[in-house]
Amino acid sequence: MTIPLWLDWAQRLQAVAQSGLNYQPQPFDRLRYEQVLAIAAEMMAAGMNADPTEIQAIFEAQAGHATPKVDVRGAVFRGDNVLMVRELLDGGRWTLPGGWADIGESAGESVVREIYEETGYSARAVRLMAAFDRNKHDHPPFAFHAYKLFFLCELTDDERHPDPNNVETGEIGWFSEDDIEGLEVSQGRVTKAQIGLFFRHNRDADLATAFD
């Protein structure tokens, strides 16, 4: 998949501006980087039909040298069925449990934490199945460049302990590969094609990690 040019340009301009502002530029250079950031926000807002001031605020909240964000997701299988959760922040669509990796945790630790928080199941990461560039897959536009790491995981405890403070996800379910076709998935988090690949990984331990 090739992302729209406006999205590619806006992401790259935002990254240039953020990184430039990070290195304490001279006043005139700072002004130019701020102008570049504003242009990136206008481009992003036009492409996403969003409020430019809201996009500008999101961009201005970023600090430091710009690098891709990292999203981690876990495919937990019970036999031939995979664990899915309803994403309340995306209209109740289904997704693999996961989220942004946290500072101070490895990617594997982050995905295990996310699985527990969103499903109540304790699990462990077994194998990295895929390291994908979000821009190269069939996901809707997103303000920032991001990498998506998908881990094959297994339960360490069959007993479920739901988190009463979880406000991001709701119902959980175990689904076969055929079931996935009938689900409305949260396309920004995972695609049906990606889930199909993970079923193949679950069946074949020798399958190589997919990337890009």
Which topology of the largest domain does CATH recognise?
Answer: Nucleoside Triphosphate Pyrophosphohydrolase
Low-confidence stretches: none
- Please trace the helix and strand order, writing H or E for each element: HHHEEEEHEEEHHE
Output the CATH class name of the largest domain: Alpha Beta
Describe this protein with a few key phrases:
212 residues, alpha+beta, Nucleoside Triphosphate Pyrophosphohydrolase, 2 domains, 6 helices
Furnish the topology, listing elements before pairings.
Layout: H1 5-22, H2 27-48, H3 52-60, E1 69-78, E2 81-87, E3 93-95, E4 98-100, H4 107-119, E5 123-133, E6 146-155, E7 169-175, H5 177-180, H6 192-203, E8 210-211
Parallel strand pairs: 1-6, 5-8
Antiparallel strand pairs: 1-2, 1-4, 2-3, 2-7, 5-6
Helix pairs in contact: 1-2, 2-3
Please characterize this protein's 3D structure.
The chain has helices at 5-22, 27-48, 52-60, 107-119, 177-180, 192-203; strands spanning 69-78, 81-87, 93-95, 98-100, 123-133, 146-155, 169-175, 210-211. It contains six helices and eight strands, in the order αααββββαβββααβ. The model has no long low-confidence stretch (mean pLDDT 96). A hairpin with a 5-residue loop joins strand 2 (81-87) and strand 3. The chain has two domains: 5-60; 69-211, Nucleoside Triphosphate Pyrophosphohydrolase, CATH 3.90.79.10. The longest helix is centred in the first third of the chain and has 22 residues, at 27-48. Helix content is 37%, strand content 25%. Helix 1 runs antiparallel to helix 2 (27-48) and helix 2 (27-48) packs across helix 3 (52-60). With 212 residues, it is of the alpha+beta class. Strands 1, 2, 3, 4, 5, 6, 7 and 8 form an eight-stranded mixed beta sheet that branches. It is elongated and about 60 Å long.
